[in-house]
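User: Structure please.
Assistant: Input sequence and predicted structure:
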Amino acid sequence: MIFSVKAGHVVPTYIDALWGVMEREGAEIGVLISFNEPTPGMRVRAAEAEFYESPWGKHPRIQLRTVGELLDGKGIDYPHVTGANVTQRAAARAAKAAPESLKLFETTPDVPVRNGAALVASPTDEGIDAFIAELRDGGDEDDGGPRES
């Protein structure tokens, strides 16, 4: 359904413009709402559009209404599909779940750290216990060279 609202003096060409928009948009019914009464020529052009036949009856394709008519309760003739012209209450928004925190690497408090980096060795390396003890005791810094066991 297409609505066109006009103020002031209305002319039959408004009906032609409404019909063109209805064809372009594929609408079956168009309504021209104005403050002033439609002219006799506008009524003739609206009648030439004939009727839209729906499963709920026949409805004028182009309907002319004044603001006064709408305020007096004269409605618009359109197919009243049961339940289709009802505004529904918006559903409540779902609560956002807190993001799950996943750790990329698990570290243990027994892993020695030097200069912000964990020093990791295989449990089968010789001398690992001595190396860890040395780090805990504040021994010499590792110079990157080979270690003695």
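The mean pLDDT is 78.
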